[in-house]
From TrEMBL:
SMART domains membership: HAMP
Protein name: HAMP domain-containing protein
Source species: marine metagenome
One protein family per Pfam: HAMP
Tagged with keyword Membrane: yes
Stored Gene3D superfamilies: 6.10.340.10
Amino acid sequence: MNSGVKFKHSLVFKIVGTTFIVYSLVTIIITFYQMYNEFTLTQKRIKNDINIASTTIKTTLIEAMWNVDNELIDVTLSGLVKNPSILGSIVYDSESVLIGKSSSEEVIVENFDLKQINNPFNLNEPTSFNFELIKDKENIGSFVVYSSENLIWDSIKSRYRIIIINKVIEISVLMIVLFFLCRKMLKPLNIILTSVNEISKGNLDTVVVYQSNDEFGRVADSFNKMTQELANIIKTIATVSYNISNATQDMESGNKDISARTHQQSSSLE
């Protein structure tokens, strides 16, 4: 039944709207925290990968530098950049002279410029890690490993999409379920409201047809009892009013009779 209330003013709209706003805000905060946490964990994982890979080849590079084995240096660096977290690496001697370099397939070799100390491979959002090469407490050189913050974004981009899509679906499903649930729960209220409108028009024979053990069921029963009592009171008042009216008419008729008799007796005396 239609209660005559506009949807934007209805309880369903207020409940669903308020829930949507609150739940969306909470979801956005939690989602941003998850995304930040995902970024931080991925950043730590990549740094750990770089540290582990670099530490693993460190002994080999030290021996190659000590024995001036350039071929082994090149092979070692080539193996290092096969790690997906590493885009380039450079080995210097103790005088900071370039000994060897290598880069992954993603790096454009022609863009290499050693003059750009902090970013010789011309990477976007570069980050670097420096490692000293020490043998018998003597510094024989160093090597630098280069990576990029873009690797982090590339790694978590798909997971970000999944997180956002899941949250959108979660909110949509919740709102749809809540909408229909609220409409079903508040339907008895519309029935009662319609009956109240009928009573306001003077129809005391209206009855709320809703049987349930919940609060609305109890309200419907109480409403029907109230309507019945109200109808009985009105009927009682009408009966009393009718009786009073009849008694008044009888009194008026008796008074007329007394007046007529009095007049007749007066005439007889004259």
